[in-house]
Amino acid sequence: SSFADLQKPQMELDGKACAAVGQSGLMALYDMLFTQLDVSSSQLLVTDSDFDNSNFRERLRETVESLLELRVIPIFNENDAISTRKAPYEDSSGIFWDNDSLAGLLALELKADLLVLLSDVDGLYSGPPSEPSSKLIHTYIKEKHYHEITFGDKSRVGRGGMTAKVQAAVWASTGGVPVVITSGCASQSLVKVLRGEKIGTLFHKNASSWEPSKDTSVREMAVAARDCSRRLQNLSSKERKKILLDVANALKANEDLIKSKNETEVAPAHEAGYESALVARLTLKPGKVGTSLAKSVRTLANMEDPINEILKRTEVADGLVLEKTSCPLGVLLIIFESRPDALVQIASLTIRSGNGLL
Question: Rounded to the nearest 10 degrees, how much is the dihedral formed by the CA atoms of 59, 96, 167, 72?
Fold first, then answer.
């Protein structure tokens, strides 16, 4: 056919036939892109009704695990060519409706560590992204954002747009798979998500517990620190010692996670061109957390209790003895720069000495 014939076909083209032809072109593009990275890709076509079959879901998991062991990227798509569905939503059995809900379903079936949904915007906004008053929502909290967000028209090239992405993200995150919606147009988006950088919108089943119910004022923080200081003072030396030993054990157990989080802070500092001395202070060197810091906390835990130590005793009169005794100051406000290990040292000292800390 000539190009003109394709532009003005003499008969109405069959959508399912077009889908079958387009699928080959789509996979050819994926093959080309992944070949440049020396990675093989594979195609897995599914339909809505397939997931009704438990045997199919089990075979699906086995196949994906085998592919990943071989370092082959599995690329899923709905098999539109043989789908019995006529309208995107009305004829659906409710298992999935578009690529976003299919991604959510697969993430749950395959017990994924993370699901990333790519959009043409940076994430979920409080209003249309084009409006200056709209703000990017970094963490989606259903109780807070469900009634506040206004969705625009659906995507020009997709079935559901941001509405479908949010529905899929809520569904997957409720099932235990964290989800990030971010831009597929921006450079290095996937890499930044995997580094833990704060981009896009995060969906997590525990998100509502991360955000305080209201903004805490400086006075409220100070009062809370004072109250906690009094609670620490009422603990025995043995109880405060146990807290510090638990801190040391937690540092050792979470060394890799802490190091990874530290790297996400150091990388932007490098990119921003900060002075090398400042970046060096910000960097946690290998072995610092699990060995050096944890050891110093244990040493502090095993020291003599600094509270209620009698420093001086004077007999003022017969039967009347005046004692000078060490006691906590109350609440300490500490300001430090750039050294993450300082936080552990300062916090440990205040716990051992029964002081509150800001």
Answer: 40
